[in-house]
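New here. Invent one.

***
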Amino acid sequence: MTGFCLIGNNTSKVRHSTAWSALEDAFKSAKWDELTHGRTFTQSDAPALSLLCQWYKIAETAQDELDSFGGQTAYNNDMGDLKAFPQISTLKTASAEIRQLNKQLGICDTHEEVESGAKQTSILSIVSGNRAKRQARTA
């Protein structure tokens, strides 16, 4: 299926059926818009973006199902063994895939960037400030 969509700031023709299907699902379409807003991607990024949207939906579904269990994370199987709900494994896999695809697409968590930049700035300013104080005492 061929369609038009906004990839970053450029309108591109998407000829990849899975990318187009991502836009037909309300959750994945909203996630696509969120991920591409303010970013520029090439047409060749569309399949990875579509897959990223799919993994976000899988993670959301697993979280919703876990929430519906009332805080329980395990169950007793027919043999009486205590087993973790399969949604936990699904959530772990989805999380790993999301991180990998974000890295592949150059999408980084700006929250971490801001925190790390602030820490580096404050450490650098402390070191510079201490150096200036030492130099002032020796002069």
